Protein 1
Amino acid sequence: MKQDVLALVESKAQGFSKGQKLIAQYLTESYDKAAFMTANRLAKTVGVSESTVVRFAMELGYDGYPSMQKAMQEMVVNRLTSVQRMEVATDRIGNQDILSMVLQSDMDKLRKTGETVDRGEFQAAVDAILGARRIYIIGVRSVAPLANFLGYYLNYMFDNVQIVTDGGTSAMFEKIVGAQDGDAVVAFSFPRYSTSTAKGAQYCRSTGATVIGITDSRLSPLGQNCDHVLLAKSDMVSLVDSLVAPLSVINALIVALSTKRQQELSQTFNQLERLWEEYNVYEKRGDGQ
């Protein structure tokens, strides 16, 4: 269902029962908290029965409460301020073991990413990078480490890699102004989506460059401006979003590219190993270590 949940609530408000109006009021005023409540908890918070909550979801056109909750979560994830994200995270964590909760959440994201990422799109991304004249990697703000990580390894394989991590729109365009047909652009964007990344991707695509987006939805601002989209889950609502799944997709890209550039990489690393040894770049393992 594409329509915003709150817009649905407003459009159907006239036909709500007394209990449903209480739910509607709470959703309107506290959607950031309601989106992560179970049906039972929402019912208790509002002061209605759980069955009333379920009927409310169906009244909006959903097949049940889980569907409405998912739609609410998708809606709010890009609306929440940093303060709201911390409040929601604290509320969700409660007395749970934080380490176990976060590790389990990350494992769930990896599993879901493995189920949803399109293998054809992945191969198309690999082919586009392999055949590119120049490669631009765009990742600003919290996803800048992803861009730097991918760029670090691609610099071993290709001669013309440009890493763009400056979040300012003006600075970004100064670095991607030369993008053209025959180039490949890899861009990262996750909630809260950076406007400069979407604008940069849109510009690069208009020049004829092939744009590869690594994001959480084809309908995200970046996803709508890409030739190929690699979906990776990153929907933990807290001050820090999980980048485990996107990083795993990057690892897969690097491995796939390295298998195609094996001969060139062997020559590069043979030369580097000699230099590293000569200039003591790495600590040497002592006897018995």
Note: DSSP finds 13 helices and five strands in the chain.
Protein 2
Amino acid sequence: MPETNSSPKKAKLTLVSTVHYVKLVYRSLLFIALLVYYILFRTQGGTDIGSLIESRPVFLFLFWAIFVVEMVFRFFPSRIESPGCQKQFGRHYIKTGRTEIKIEDNNAVFLVALVWISFNLVFGALHMMGIFDDGIMLLLSAAYAVCDILCILFFCPFQTWFLKNKCCSTCRIYNWDYAMMFTPLFFVQKSYTWSLLALSIALLARWEIAFFRHPERFSENTNGYLGCKNCSEKLCAHKEQLERLWKDVAEAAKKRNKRLAKE
């Protein structure tokens, strides 16, 4: 009999997942560039990084335009966006025949909002006391942008500790990401920072209006689009691969330590 391969089949990256990884790369590069820029600025005795950034319009425009384009895309249906943010649109509503709307994570929404606002108020207070400058607040937003993708691809504390949702597709607060990302910019009184924050709040408001008008679109029980068979992301498969990789690494390390202990 031919030998069978019992190892799990390797999942291929979908288009949506590939977009996430691309975002992770350029957001990380933006954060690193801003961090290096800030360190050099501070070591040279600079005091107003806002004016310095504005004197480099190419860098400023690149940083601003990337996120504006990302947010504008979220206002419209798109096949390269995650089902998690696309479920708000009527074209993605697939009736299941059931009428009971079940959104298990809805009760934790206010807790998440409270925790996030309280968390960032600490940074805001440090900024108002002069301990943090505008550069630190910009770095915080850039770091949040990287963490946003890390939450999608690898581990999300909001999903694990608060919302308990199945995956990103069913996440109740998926389109809160940009508003959360740009929260620190509230304390940076510049037109480019407040414009990003204003657009992110508009995106959040659009999301919440859609939820209260059409909650059936946000429930897997009533919207078949959120079911696993219709998922265009398949991130769960990649997360399972990573979990298996970590287990294999841990097992290999354990065997190596045993071998070294015997020698």
Note: Confidence is low (pLDDT under 50) at residues 1-8.
Protein 3
Amino acid sequence: MEIRYLSQEEKEQSRTLYEEVFVEDEEAFVEAYYRVKARDNRILTAWEEGQLVSMLHRNPYTFRFRGKRVRADYLVAVATRYAFRHRGLMRGLLTRALQDMEREKLPFTFLMPADEAIYLPFDFRLMGNVDEESLARRGGDSLSREYDLFVEKDQDYERRHISWPEWEATPMMLRLVYLPGFAAQIGAEEPQSLVIRVEDPILPENDGTFLWQFEEEGSRLVPSGQEPELRISVADLGSFLCGMTGTKELPGVLQMKNPEAVLEKLERIRVLSGIYINETV
């Protein structure tokens, strides 16, 4: 198996696979997608016997994350030819994409799952996304008063946006990628520190013990050799920071040496109070 990104000139070669798998998409939509989105996205592909047999698209977005502009890729068009499924091709593509995004210091990535169970083994979790059609008409300054994380609809967004008449609710899943970048936007009610052991089987840079140092408006992770106060998977950490999992619901917290002290620290962390994403591709 060969895994590589398509050159700009090769991108049209992936359209056959797109149309084979996403049969529900109208021809006009597929045409618009390849004209608009493929202009500057990245298409990661797997090849066997000289054939393009699996792919995922990394579509770039800019977010406003508690006042800071950050980039995050939307993973779409995740597809494998029927005859080549169950061979580990998509695992290879997702692993490579996550590792590349970590090297590029993207704090997170997100997707709209056709089946949530497919992405749970890769540590994606539902993000608690609020998606109301009326919000699409509100500007960034208005949204920032209620939402900690939302898509910045700037000139790049308008250039890449496909306006399509059908609107529907969009449950989203998020995966933490570059932990220091995400942590930089996570503050606490008062300065504090927490020694945390993060388990990430896909991204080695996230897998380790860190001293998590908090100020009110942000925090930083420093590698540490101390005994961890909390052990947590990167998936559970993402669920917690997105406001989906409460402190007492986190696996293993109550089994730590000093659970009451750990719970007090966790409850002071300013997790995200609002996420709004209403994108289709």
Note: The two ends are 27 Å apart (CA to CA).
